[in-house]
Amino acid sequence: QGESLETGDILGKVGASGVASGSHLHFEVRYENNNYASTTNPVLWFSPLSDQNSTMTGTIAGRILDRFGKSVSETSITLQKLNTNGTVVKTYYLKTYAQDGINPHPALAENFALPDVPPGDYRLSFVVGTLYEVLFTLEPGMLGFINLQVN
User: Fold this and answer.
1) What 3 state SS string does the chain have?
2) What's the domain range around 120?
3) How far, in whole angstroms, is CA 136 from its chain's centroid?
4) pLDDT at 143 over 80
């Protein structure tokens, strides 16, 4: 708790101990308190990676709220990377967090996140009663944050 880390520091090792079946690494970030109620999405604490062309990627996160201002739970999101003429070149599928047990970043209050996304133009779409679409540009090395409240 309260320790600083440097690039290259070993944080853990992949293993098959505990109650899990199969080798895996359980990694979480706990903010301020060392308990399960203080966990946050670790991808929001990492610097974006560079792709195979040494171009810095970005991270997309956001908050989708219902008409009462409450986070929508387990809503499917489609994220499409667009080329210059608007044609879809890659599609990502993700969901908003389940309401119970998933804690947002204390400064962002997000309910979805996707790291290491190539920079460029995107269309984000989801359905909460009706179809919602947002067009935006993600800059290299940046966090693109989408904040929407549906009707």
Assistant:
1) CCCCCCCCCCCCCCECCCCCCCCECCCCEECCCCCHHHEECHHHHCCCCECCCCCECEEEEEEEECCCCCECCCCEEEEEEECCCCCEEEEEEEECCCCCCCCCCCCCCCCEEEEEECCEEEEEEEEECEEEEEEEEECCCCEEEEEEECC
2) 48-149
3) 16
4) yes
Structural domain includes residue 11: no
**In terms of Cα–Cα distance, which of 10, 11, 45 is closest to 31?**
45
CATH number of the domain within which 77 lies: 2.60.40.1120
pLDDT, tens only, 15-49:
666 666 777 777 778 888 888 888 888 888 888 88
What is the C-alpha separation between 42 and 104, in angstroms, rounded?
A: 10
